[in-house]
Design brief:
By secondary structure, the chain is α+β, with helices and mostly antiparallel strands. Helix content is 26%, strand content 28%. It starts with 5 loop residues before the first strand and ends in a 5-residue tail after the last helix. GO terms for molecular function: transaminase activity. One of its GO terms (biological process) is carboxylic acid biosynthetic process.
């Protein structure tokens, strides 16, 4: 069977994975786009866990702050809804002039296994790898990509990014969560991290204690469980994390992790 890819670009449905951009397009030259990636539950944009409105608000707020042109929101929704019949994950990208690029993909390989057994991670300092405009999800995502590629070459599954003081910030693709003494913790947005939608959903729907704080090296030493989240993977715990000083072994099946996972249950 031939696998067909469907992409919407500027109102047109493309059969394939190639679109045309001017060599002078700011999206190509500077990564001047904003985007969001969402997991569509039960093929429905209005499913409570899809959080369609949150994803649109993320794009809308960035466009407003950047003083860009708004897309045709009705067209964006119609195109996204069409792609839900083919893909469980959508990425919606908006260019400065309001053009939209909407594409789909499958869930990550072995996601269920990673959610159950956990993954390995390595702590890597930002230094010159700081993400551009960290409060916005822009097309300039080179820094996290470089960090992820670096740790993967060393055999690790994910990069944990820090600032120059060694404070843990986020992973290359998501927000961090740590559990200690009956409470879940997540880094402060003011530290320069992305306000992830999965993070927002967890905070708004949790029936257990959550605190936002600065993740110092000493604080990390107190954590009994560590995980990361985003709208596609939901919750994936770590079982091993390599720092500059030592290797941390963490229980990926700590009972507290179920508290986070339960927020994403569909039934």
């Amino acid at each position: 069977m031939v696998r067909v890819s469907y992409v919407f670009f500027d109102g047109e449905l493309m059969d394939g994975d190639i679109v045309s951009l001017s060599v002078n397009d700011p999206g190509l030259l500077y990564g001047a786009t904003v985007f969001t990636t969402l997991r569509v539950y039960d093929g429905c944009l209005d499913h409570p866990l899809t959080n369609w409105d949150y994803h649109c608000d993320r794009i809308y707020n960035s466009i407003k702050i950047f003083d860009w042109e708004m897309p045709d929101w009705q067209r964006v929704r119609k195109e996204a809804q069409y792609l839900t019949t083919h893909y469980p994950v959508l990425r919606i990208t908006i260019f400065p002039d309001g053009r939209e690029l909407i594409l789909g993909r499958q869930l990550p390989d072995n996601l269920s296994q990673k959610q159950q057994a956990g993954i390995t991670g390595k702590v890597i300092k930002y230094d010159l790898n700081s993400r551009s405009l960290p409060l916005h999800k822009t097309g300039n995502y080179l820094a996290p990509l470089l960090c992820l590629n670096k740790v993967k070459k060393e055999g690790f599954g994910e990069a944990i990014l820090t600032d120059n003081n060694g404070h843990w910030l986020e992973t290359s693709i998501g927000n961090l969560w740590g559990y200690s003494s009956g409470c879940w913790f997540t880094p402060l947005l003011s530290e320069g991290i992305l306000p992830g939608i999965a993070r927002k959903v967890i905070i708004e729907n949790a029936n257990f204690p959550i605190q936002k704080n600065i993740w110092t090296v000493d604080f990390v030493e107190t954590l009994e469980a560590i995980a990361h989240s985003n709208s596609v993977i939901e919750i994936v715990p770590f079982h091993t994390i390599k720092t500059e000083e030592k290797t941390l072994k963490i229980d990926p099946q700590h009972p507290a992790i179920k508290l986070l996972k339960n927020i994403f249950k569909t039934g």
